[in-house]
Each structure stands twice: as structure tokens, then as C-alpha cells.
Amino acid sequence: QVQLVESGGGLVQPGGSLRLSCAASRSIFSFNAMDWYRQATVKERELVARITTGGRTNYADSVKGRFTISRDNAKNTVYLQMNSLKPEDTAVYYCHALGRDGYWGQGTQVTVSS
User: How many CB atoms lie within 10 A of CB 88?
Assistant: First the structure.
């Protein structure tokens, strides 16, 4: 079992930035990859970014060039740097650990509005 705790969400104006953090209760190196998903109201949960154990990254087309995923294995933490935020980025953002058993965090709300 592992607990994932997200933080860093909030209200930001369009064009602004936020950095989300996901702290794991044990080593994230044991997972194949760490992901950030998001779910907007009345929409399905979608994969935003993924970083593998080897450091390869993948992004949804809608966030390429604006979001950056990174990991600090020593701190068991994954980050999502979000720049040039748009109103359509408004959603609850979830951290996910990809392995034989998948784990989810509780989510953190990101609202982009003027």
C-alpha cells in the first residue's frame, strides 16, 4: 500500500503558473511510472503527463510546451510545473502511481479564472 498526497493547487489567473507536488509514502522508484491526471466537471479523467522510472516523459497534446513533469526520487515526490495556464486547464488534478497495483491520490483543485 502507498499513500499519495497532492498539494499546490489553487486559483490562478489565465497566463499564470502553479506547481503541483505529489508526495508518496514510499519509494516511487518501485513504480513503472508516475502520472498526473486531471478531471474537469462532466468530463472523463484524462492523462496529462507521465514520467517513467528511466526519466522519459509524455504529455497530452493540450499541455505540451506549457507543463513539465519531474521527479525527485530521494524525496519520493513528483512535480507538475504548469505555465501559461488557461481556463480550460481548470480541473481536479490527481497523482497516480503506475505499477502492478495502481494508486491514486485524493486530488487537488486547480482553477484558472480572472
Answer: 10
d(CA 60, CA 50): 9
3-state helix, strand, coil in the chain (%, to 5): 10, 50, 40
26 pairs with which residues across the strands?
Answer: none
Q: State how far the Cα of 70 lies from the Cα of 10, in Å rounded to an integer.
A: 20
Give kind and range of the element (H or E) at residue 80. strand 77-82
Q: What digits encode the pLDDT tens for the residues 49-93?
A: 999 999 999 999 999 999 999 999 999 999 999 999 999 999 999
CA gap 59, 79 in Å, rounded: 14
Residue 16 in grid coordinates: 499564470
